[in-house]
Amino acid sequence: MATDITTDRLRELAETRSAQGKVLSVFINLDPREFATPRARATEISSVLDAAARTIREVDDLTPDERSALQQDLERVNGALRGGVDTKEARALAIFACQPAGLFEILKLPRPVEHKVEIGDTPCVEPLARIATGELWWFVLVDRKHARLLAGTVDGLVELWRHEDDVLARVDSDRQDQDGRSERRYERSVENEVDNHLRGVATELARRLRDVRVAGILLGGTKETTGHFASFLHADVGRCVKGHFDIDVKGSSADAVLTAARPVLDELIAGRDEELLAKIDEGLGTGGRAVAGLGDVLLAAHERRLDTLVLQEGFTAKGTRCPQCGWMGVSAGGQCPADGTMTDMEDNVVETLVGSALGQDARVRYVAADDARVGAKGGVAALLRF
């Protein structure tokens, strides 16, 4: 479920726009602690859809064609949800619809989000960014016979690949054909087959790593086996290995894998955040490639200079946006300083900022709401490309 909401997919959503209509974005909280039964979930879905219908009726600045298209989009959403969308294991749903743009998507989210209905020129991706922009980690589980690859973030994992080698069966077959083979030779044959198994897993990881960028790889299993396995890893894979955790390779669920790996993972993520914030402090102190405070960060986003955007959880702010060139500011309105177009008010310009960051292939990183280092910078800061 976690890898369904990738940074690449967020980027595609952030760049979706239609000149003929508006985009309907709906977020439905299905936290099992609050909505444990199917009936409770169905009631909650109905409540949010009713809120979406009211929003479409009450928004003032829609043309008749835009309002009609949104009503049709809502009917599609209603039909899909009433038709039995699988909400199993979902903590929330994110729904995006815009028929003129050919957009209709329902995403299951691995953690709860607040109820939200938005109508805009582009999909509202900021709530998803809190999930998808958590850096992607790989969890490679190996023993002498099995291998599994899981991927995800601190919010959840999905299994991408599973493999089993019948090592002993092959060696036993050879042993039956050669009755005179010594026990020692038999044991060497077993070890050779185990090595072939681990070597094959290493080759598969190298092939898969060519197509994805990961923050790091954690190896799960016994220290003896994972240590031996590490000797077979290709150099580019080996450089990504950041730690080890003990786990039952064959039978552990994805949730159990994340629980076992969590202490190591939390420590690694905290270290990466420390490094990121130190780079920002260094850039601010030397007048280098870093900015802090909403106004300066918005300007850097408009100039497409963002490398990594850092936000405090829960940070919001009103602002303005130019409908023509996309310039964003913190002023109370007026003309766009870039092209003179009258700007539109934004209730939360941070949502637009996140979409802009994703659209220019920048990383987005959220830190805890009580993180004083980012709080002292106004709740937002960024590393810059230039």
Q: How are the SSEs placed, and which strands pair?
A:
Layout: H1 7-14, E1 23-29, H2 38-58, H3 64-82, E2 92-98, E3 103-109, E4 116-120, H4 126-132, E5 137-142, E6 146-153, E7 156-164, H5 167-177, H6 183-209, E8 216-220, H7 223-230, H8 235-238, E9 241-245, H9 254-286, E10 290-292, H10 294-302, E11 306-312, E12 319-321, E13 328-329, E14 344-346, H11 349-359, E15 363-367, H12 372-375, E16 380-384
Helix pairs in contact: 1-11, 2-3, 5-6
The percentage helix is 40-55%
Q: Flag low-confidence runs.
A: none
Strand order within the widest beta sheet: 7-6-5-8-9
Shape: globular
Mean pLDDT: 89
Q: What is the count of distinct domains?
A: 3
| Beta-strand content bin | 15-25%
Looking at the structure, the CATH topology of the largest domain is: Nucleotidyltransferase, domain 5
β-strand number: 16
Summarize the helix and strand pattern as letters. HEHHEEEHEEEHHEHHEHEHEEEEHEHE
**Largest sheet entry:** 5 strands, mixed
Superfamily at the CATH H level of the largest domain?
Answer: eRF1 domain 2
Features:
single chain, 386 residues, alpha+beta, Translation, Eukaryotic Peptide Chain Release Factor Subunit 1, Chain A, Nucleotidyltransferase, domain 5, 60s Ribosomal Protein L30, Chain: A, 5-stranded mixed sheet, 4-stranded antiparallel sheet, 16 strands, 42% helix, globular
